[in-house]
Amino acid sequence: MAILRITLAMARALMNRPDLLLTPGSTSNPDPVPAAQVTGLIVQVNGAEGMTFLFLTHDDKIASLFRRRIVVGGGLVTGRGASTGGGVT
Q: Out of the domains of life, which is the source (predicted)?
């Protein structure tokens, strides 16, 4: 049920085709299936629409799906750069 709520919320947000979409850290969800589905949806929309997402995650594996990363620790930017995965902008 959580994936349905998240998908509907994203659909509402995407209706106006924003230049930038802020997304919650859905990967903190204890159920990995919805987290993977949400991440897959973001990757798909980014590829099809070229929309920029600000995606928050604690999971390095998921972060590697995205082309650019900003690492924050203790409230400060501690690193930036390209992911080794070379994925989505």
A: Bacteria
CB 83 within 8 A of CB 62: no
Q: Are strands 68-73 and 76-82 parallel, antiparallel or unpaired?
A: antiparallel
Give the Cα separation of 35 and 14 in Å (integer). 18
The pLDDT tens digits along the chain (89 residues) read 566 777 788 788 888 888 888 876 654 555 666 677 777 878 888 778 778 888 888 878 878 888 888 888 888 998 887 765 545 54
Question: DSSP class of residue 41?
Answer: H
Coil, strand or helix: which one is 45?
A: helix
Tokens of 7: 């998908």
The one-character DSSP state at 1 is -
Largest CA distance in the chain: 36
Quick one: tokens of 19?
A: 């230049």
